[in-house]
Specification:
2 strands; 245 residues; two-stranded antiparallel ribbon; mainly alpha; 5% strand
């Protein structure tokens, strides 16, 4: 087994790592806000009529349960994945490229199918509607958007979690992150990917929910350590990436 040591000193990448690190921590803060809202304000409505009613009665609670913070967090997630690509591209460029493509595809699906803005728009239209047939159409449109969003979460999540899992495996061949971070990513994202596959295969949703709860903490710690590593790299003049062949 041979070891190839590659030293990277490109200051332009260092600047990206700073941005990726800051973006990662802001993203985690957004996700935490949503988790707190789900716990304290939930459960959220299960159909369009419930969402419309909630938004009409309490817009702030409706906005929070629609996960607007997570929507902005997903935008920042692009920077996290691009930072991962930058740090691991010389360890295994083929799989690092595949992972970042998967990540961008997954995040784009999640963003374009997100129901937050459409549901708010439809709710405003529903509140202003005076003709019953128009209200029925708006409710139908709302149900369609909810179904599309649910499908987008599964499909987009599959690509995003696959990307994170691939990056975590690549980390095992690099000394930039260390095995602890790699194994946290493999455990957390591996469990979440298994959960998504189970949902696609129509296997017990209860088991899938358990996998989500178990995998959440490793994923959170993985992001925390990855974000910290980005900042360390960003403020260093160079770092050494070890690839094992």
């Amino acid at each position: 087994m041979n070891e190839i040591i590659k030293e990277i000193t490109d200051s332009s990448w260092n600047g990206l790592y700073k941005i990726s690190g800051i973006a990662t921590f802001i993203m985690m803060a957004f996700f935490m806000i949503d988790i707190i809202c789900w716990i304290t304000l939930g459960p959220y409505p299960s159909n369009a009529e419930g969402w419309f009613t909630l938004l009409q009665n309490n817009k702030l609670v409706g906005f929070l349960l629609l996960s607007f913070p997570t929507f902005f967090g997903m935008i920042l997630y692009y920077l996290t994945f691009f930072g991962l690509y930058g740090t691991l591209r010389q360890v295994n460029n083929v799989y690092a490229t595949l992972a970042v493509v998967f990540a961008f595809v997954g995040l784009t699906i999640l963003l374009i199918t997100n129901m937050a803005y459409p549901i708010v728009y439809l709710s405003n239209q529903y509140e202003a509607a005076t003709i019953e047939s128009h209200k029925v159409l708006l409710l139908a449109a709302g149900e369609t958007k909810i179904a599309t969003a649910n499908s987008g979460v599964i499909l987009g999540g599959f690509f995003a979690e696959s990307a994170a899992l691939i990056f975590s495996v690549i980390m095992l061949r690099s000394n930039v992150y260390g095995n602890k971070i790699a194994y946290l990513g493999i455990l957390g994202h591996g469990l979440d990917l298994t959960r998504i596959v189970m949902i696609l295969a129509f296997i017990s949703e209860k088991v899938a929910a358990i996998l989500l709860m178990i995998g959440a903490l490793p994923q959170f710690l993985w992001l925390l350590l990855v974000g910290r590593r980005f900042l360390q790299l960003g403020w260093s003049k160079s770092y050494t990436s070890k690839a094992v062949e």
